[in-house]
Fold this sequence. Notes:
Layout: E1 7-10, H1 24-27, E2 33-35, H2 44-54, E3 59-64, H3 66-77, E4 82-88, H4 97-111, H5 115-126, H6 135-161, E5 177-182, H7 190-199, E6 204-208, H8 215-218, H9 220-232
Parallel strand pairs: 1-2, 1-3, 3-4, 4-5, 5-6
Amino acid sequence: MDNTMPILLIPGLASSPRIYAPVIPALWRFGPVTVANHIRDDNTAVIARRILAEAPPRFALAGHSMGGYIAFEIMRQAPQRVAKLALINTQARPDTPEAIARRRGQIGRAQGGEYHAVLDDLFPGLVHPSRREDGALRKLLHDMGDDIGADAFVRQQTAIMSRPDSRPTLAVISCPTLVLTGDEDNTIPNSLSSEMAGGIHGAKLVILANCGHLPQPERPEATADALVEWLRV
């Protein structure tokens, strides 16, 4: 009997399928793996609808950072299609006014030809403090940024700024859920992961040691282990 389950992965802001490359080899044995295209629209509801139109009828869903915001929207639109949910270094809260102002500044700089400079400014907050001089991780960020381009970066930021508050819908999530984060995520503090896990019945919270906002390349084996355990539930 075939017990495989399609697996749908959604990257984060300025991220491409490269972000999941370190963990996909551990996942594919559980079913066909697809990385969603989340760069075409500037609204999370529209992004979710387009992803759902292209997705298998039922699937395990993992969203990283912005991908988690889209995952919440998918759960609102088609919860019956999601067999399992993994929320990776993300949050249920909407943007604060300060975050919106910061994003608008980044949009203006990206549109003004400073896209790579914006990525460089983001980098220290995306990795564990011990990895701020890691040239390979910085190159990964630039390569993924080039994959999506400045125009898509602007669309993504626009979508993120207008996303709804997902905290009121946490309690209605009933599928097996993993909440994964790093012990020193300086972009989305892991206290917000604890908040999500506390609001979702039966959710499992995993906090990776020596890890920032990018667990797939920072702690690939530990991240893969957590995802494998989630898929085996």
